Amino acid sequence: MELLNEVLPPKTGRALLVRSGEVLRITDLEGQQVVDVAIFNANNYRDRLSLSYSTTRYAMQYSAKRSGKAEPTVLMSKDFLTEGDVLMSTIYTPLMTIIKETPEPKGVHKVNQRMCNRRFYESFGLMGVDGCHEIISGVVAPYGIRPEDIPDTIDFFMNYHHDCASHAWVAEAPVSKPGDYVELRAETDCLVAISNCPEDHFSMINGGRCTPMRLQVFDASDARVG
Question: Burial level of 193, CB count in 10 A (0-12/13-18/19+)?
Fold first, then answer.
């Protein structure tokens, strides 16, 4: 059953409750649009998304030894998140799992650094311009969440990668096409705050223009998800 279906206009935000087992689908309607997503445990807003934990994996390596015992745990760090990866919280709570994404190549999302904000725009001489931080701050304020308590976001569809030769991070036009989407299954009740990224001033982060996104929430039993 579809529980929510609405269009998020450019440069706006939305906060919504996604309960355990429900699936949130975020669709890029026109292509090359970024959304910044902050996630909070709905039962404890101080327990919120940690991309450091989300991009770290603990893999048990099983040997063929006669003992049949597991080898020591192996720690692996990733610089991207994609299907099957779990978005973890600051106290190791599994918040949401990425169960499907359609853009190719997969895993092209920003998982480091802060979101755009007024001070960021001021550094380029643009005064009074709200960024994703201000947009998300506005939609979570009714829940008593302060701007300084907003975690780093996962920025879906943002083509942000490290250029080793220049020792710098580079933002290019997103790879998402019209109709591409990502689906997230809630592993606990989550408050999800979304900013439809407003950056169209000096970069190709949103392909040079800001466009609408579709937000849908499905019941876990809906056959259309996954």
Answer: buried
Tokens for 130? 């709200």
Question: pTM of the predicted model, to two decimals?
Answer: 0.90
Owner of token pair 């994609």: 82
In tens, the pLDDT along 78-130 reads 778 899 999 999 999 999 999 999 999 999 998 887 899 999 899 989 999 99
Cis bond leading into 105, ω under 30°?
A: yes
Yes or no: say if 109 and 98 are a contact pair by the CB < 8 Å rule: no
Partners of 192 in the beta sheet?
A: 16, 39
Where is 135: in which H helix or E strand?
A: helix 132-140
Q: Which amino acid is at 212?
A: P
Q: Is 39 helix (H, G, I), strand (E, B) or coil?
A: strand
pLDDT value, residue 136: 98
Instruction: Kindly tell me if the per-residue pLDDT of 41 is higher than 60.
Output: yes
- HEC string of 169-217 equals EEEECCCCCCCEEEEEEECCCEEEEEEECCCCCCCCCCCCCCCCEEEEE
Distance (Å, whole) CA 90 – CA 47: 6
